[in-house]
Automatic annotation (TrEMBL):
Protein name according to UniProt: Uncharacterized protein
GO CC annotation terms, alphabetical: plasma membrane
Compartment(s) where it occurs, according to its Swiss-Prot or TrEMBL record: Cell membrane
Pfam families registered for this protein in UniProt: EamA
Domain of life: Bacteria
Amino acid sequence: MVKPGDRAPCRFLRHGSGSLSGLVFAAGAVALWSTNALVGKSLLANHPVSQVQFLQFAGAALVLAVIRLMSREKSAPVAGAALASLAVGFIGLVGTMVLQYIAFASMPVIEANLVAYTWPLMVAAAVIVFENPRRPALLGLAAALGFVGVALVISGGRESAWFQGDLVGYFAAFGSALCMAFYSVMVRRLATSPERLLLPSSLVGVALTLLWSAREGVAWPTGVDLALGLYLGAGPMGLGYHLWSRALKLEGSGKVAVIAYLTPIASTLLLTLSGERLTTTAIAGAVLVIGSCIAVGLERSEAQDHV
């Protein structure tokens, strides 16, 4: 006979298992995302954004199609849910990646990368506005300091003027962050599996970037560049988004957030090792951005544990 008290350990084990799986998926996504800016920088040195994006979406579509074929989910979502999933997937995948790579091509990659990874701060702002966090003042302060850091990164401590890159690049980087913040908030609210959510959007991305590439009419990459482009799609885009989506669905946005917010640290380190440099002022801004992201993640993780 099972006593009422005996059920608690079972619930704990199930919760612990889901939480551990979520953390593992999030760590996998971070490992892949950390290479995105470095590999993207090398390809954009010789190829236009349209071609790099086409290879990315093609690689992502292939990986997501394989995952979808291996999935046990058979039932199709109802029309309304399908449209909502398509919208969330399109904004989160196509919007984030296209805008991010326009930013990479229009301004220093290391700065674009830091601005694009302010999406955790935008998620924190959404939590303050739409939810009931335990310590809204602390979340607000962390987010505000993060955006001060963004201003320092953009200024770069240069003697001339702000916005050394194309102004479009800065707007694109912020737009990319907004799209990713929207996706991270919404994906947990959808019952749709990650592969069913992301595959249609990746196919739309393939079609749009193919037309974009054909319009520019330049030579296609081959050899190593072709492999790197497909890696960007199969790895950071396809598997990265899939793992991140599964992590959010399993564990929520508490402890997972702390791991995900480490992405700008790893990606900035890789870019620095490749020769990218920040001025002293921009380094101070980067510290504020990264520190604020981690503080937001820790606060939300603590709030989730309290609940």
